[in-house]
Write a structure and sequence with these properties.
The chain has 345 residues and is mainly beta. It contains four helices and 15 strands.
Length: 345
């Protein structure tokens, strides 16, 4: 392979230039063109071209530059692996695959396969493709779609300030991370055992890093009244170190779990119990903000129970409390066999 080149949303048109090795006699040039998304709106969109436009030239020859644009070119839709139905059980069984130390990593245009058993239960499942670049996925012959974790979020994720006129570059997050890492696997596609996973990789990735993850969830709740003392702040009040009690709500998940969602939050006069909370006659409209900001993605967190934390006093003539229900989630890995690669010819 001489090399690859990819366009971007900002620069869809591109040129490829690289050194190539030629041998005496006839040389064959093969170009794989992949168009992600086709134009379907705008003036004269039917004239917007995709694929190889040309010119195609060879430079550095004794004769100078040779224009190959008008040479005899052939055109074929699809890949040989698609024609062989490598993504199906029958097609993948009809050819030879390599594994172990012969398995190629970071190799463009490669086919990989493996098998796995379905985890028990009804928890949602997804493939973690973060070790791969760009390509397509099939499970038991069904197309899961295109994976593209090699496309990383770019920008400045440093300071955050919404002051002034808003634009999409303010307060960016997750710079350097994949635009999508996990790909949902419908349980209805799976058998109890022997499920076939086939991946076609365009850029080059490490298939041994692919994992099947199961998302398990549970809830933790808390009810804390304003002015509610703890042993620590009660001692501080008694010693004169503080003149006002400042209660906090503390949330924590079990081992290997993190807070993934604030399911309910209300500072005021919430009603109900854990699992069936509801807003009461007094509710601070920014009840969720501080909890989501401080707790999402954390194993544990704490937030002060005070009016200024939740946007102001919702009802000054009442003893208020904060009721919270947070969702704790866990990913567990479950891939049974090491991947195999289609034997190179």
């Amino acid at each position: 392979m001489a090399g690859t080149v990819y366009g971007t949303l900002e620069n869809p048109k591109l040129s490829f230039s690289n050194n190539v090795k030629l041998r005496a006699g006839i040389n064959k040039i093969s170009l794989l063109s992949v168009a992600v998304g086709l134009p379907n709106v705008g003036p004269h969109f039917e004239t917007w071209n995709t694929g190889v436009h040309g010119p195609v030239t060879l430079k550095g020859l004794n004769e100078g530059t040779r224009d190959l644009t008008k040479q005899k070119w052939s055109y074929k839709v699809g890949l040989k692996g698609e024609g062989l139905n490598l993504h199906t059980l029958s097609g993948s069984s009809a050819i030879e695959w390599v594994e172990g130390s012969l398995l190629a990593r970071k190799q463009p245009l490669a086919w990989y396969k493996t098998t796995f058993n379905a985890p028990k239960g009804n928890d949602p499942l997804a493939l973690d493709m973060n070790s791969m670049g760009k390509g397509q996925i099939w499970i038991n012959g069904e197309s899961l779609g295109r994976h593209w974790p090699g496309y990383k979020a770019r920008g400045n994720c440093g300071s955050c300030s919404y002051a002034g006129t808003y634009d999409e570059k303010k307060c960016q997050s997750n710079c350097g991370e994949a635009s999508q890492r996990w790909y949902h696997v419908p349980r209805s596609w799976l058998k109890p055992s022997g499920n076939l996973l086939v991946v076609f990789e365009e850029w080059g990735g490490d298939p041994t890093g692919i994992s099947l993850v199961r998302r398990t969830t549970g809830s933790v709740c808390a009810d804390v009244y304003e002015g509610q003392p703890t042993l620590k702040n009660w001692h501080m009040l008694a010693s004169g170190k503080v003149d006002k009690l400042q209660p906090k709500v503390h949330l924590g998940c079990a081992r290997r779990q993190k807070i993934s969602q604030i399911k309910f939050a209300s500072y005021g006069l919430p009603q109900g119990t854990c699992g069936s909370y509801r807003e009461g006659s007094c509710h601070a409209h920014k009840s969720y903000n501080a909890l989501e900001r401080n707790c999402i993605g954390q194993k544990s967190c704490s937030v002060s129970v005070a009016p200024e934390v939740f946007g102001g006093e919702p009802c000054s003539d009442s003893m208020k409390k904060l009721s919270v229900e947070a969702v704790c989630s866990q990913n567990r890995v479950s891939i049974d066999n090491l991947p195999k690669q289609k034997k190179p010819k």
